[in-house]
Amino acid sequence: MSTPLNIRIERAADGQLALLATGEIDASNVGDFAEALNAGAGDGTDVLTVDLSAVDYLDSAAINALVPHAESVQIIANPVLMRVLLVSGLGELTKIRSATESDD
Prior knowledge:
Layout: E1 6-11, E2 17-25, H1 30-41, E3 48-58, H2 60-66, E4 73-77, H3 82-87, E5 95-98
Parallel strand pairs: 2-3, 3-4, 4-5
Antiparallel strand pairs: 1-2
Helix pairs in contact: 1-2
InterPro entries: STAS_dom (IPR002645), STAS_dom_sf (IPR036513)
Pfam families: STAS
Protein name: STAS domain-containing protein
């Protein structure tokens, strides 16, 4: 049984929007994830931080939902997701960093 997906969009103290997801992202709930990405990315003038540090699993459907927003997002990923995100080529389209890396 998969872990339910929870998504929320918040504005950080610096005014930047962040999409925070927890659980698993797969074909069963990618529509909700894509809808949140569309809402958070807005017109693409601001960079949306997509925080996947509490996501334990994602499949190709989640990657496909991220690709259209690659120029307007930056991703913070759970270390277990780094390999799949980088092998997918998404790392060539947008900034991806492990949640264990510092902000320097």
